[in-house]
Amino acid sequence: MMRPFALASMAAASSSSSPPLACSSTSLHCSATSSNRRRSTQCLRITASSSLADASALLQAAHHTVDTYVKSGMVIGLGSGQASAMAIEYLGRQLRVGAFRDVVGIPTCVASASEAAKAGIPLDYYHDSSQIDFAFDDADIMEEGTLTAVIGRQSLQGDESIIQQKCILNAADKLVFMITKNKYRGGLDGSIPVLVQSLNWLETAEEIDDLFLGDAEVWRRAAIGQAGPMGGDFPLVTKEGYNVLDIIFTSPIQSLGEVAKSLDNIDGVVDHGVISKFPCTAVIGLEGGLCIVDSQGKSSVEGL
Ligand SMILES: O=C(CO)[C@H](O)[C@H](O)COP(=O)(O)O
């Protein structure tokens, strides 16, 4: 059954991500555990410098992604978010100075199309038959080890579409997510967006609520105004005509893959923000360096 959740509990759930102390089971280990712990404490005190540090970590991740994976002649899926915007801007600059040529971008949403247009990257639409050599994106969170990611936590206004984003990312021969280390861990928390048929959204929401009973709350996303279990006065309707439910996990998620599988089996669920792609690479921005982890289990550290 849907329960009337207070707004305060939504705020608490969405801000409950505790800072991790290390970014991988393997070598992210990168000797940085104690300094990361020190850094986590400092970050709690100085939020402004934390976002500056994150921005600088993401900038390194964005430059590394373009420098390492982009080659002339590629068709590239362009994701959205802070790091993706940085990568798009840098890619445009590199095209202008002649570091690459004949690159075509396929934006996953309006925001990345607009960044790419500003950067002067030639663009194309995504078609079912599009051959995409490489794609990059931000992730809201990424599961340590499996590299399963969640996208689409931000509000889906305008023309954004989780379906289109996932199609482009899944179609790419190679996919990179650029993230900061606090988004890469096991026992993830926070929310997962789920697209549902709007006609029977309440039944679907109740089924999802029953599935994760005690571990999650299910809210319908609002287009404007206050969030609420029912989506407020103006529930969000995507461009495809679906509602968005946010499953707000209040207990750590044991396996994102299992959550995705369970959601796929529920009537009325059209898609969700969990993406599990092989091969996939996480370029994780750290303070003063990068950690690169791929889905074959290889990891390396740069610049620490
Ligand atoms: O859907 C997404 C990427 O496709 C993410 O929700 C989002 O863009 C993350 O952005 P940021 O890194 O700026 O928080």
UniProtKB/TrEMBL annotation:
One example GO MF annotation: ribose-5-phosphate isomerase activity
Alphabetically sorted, this entry's keywords are: Isomerase
The entry's family comment says: Belongs to the ribose 5-phosphate isomerase family.
Q: Does the keyword Isomerase apply?
A: yes
Q: Which residues belong to the signal peptide in this entry?
A: none
Biological process terms in GO annotation: pentose-phosphate shunt, non-oxidative branch
Q: Which PANTHER family match?
A: RIBOSE-5-PHOSPHATE ISOMERASE 3, CHLOROPLASTIC-RELATED, RIBOSE-5-PHOSPHATE ISOMERASE 4, CHLOROPLASTIC-RELATED
Q: In which pathway does it act?
A: Carbohydrate degradation; pentose phosphate pathway; D-ribose 5-phosphate from D-ribulose 5-phosphate (non-oxidative stage): step 1/1
Q: What is this protein called?
A: ribose-5-phosphate isomerase
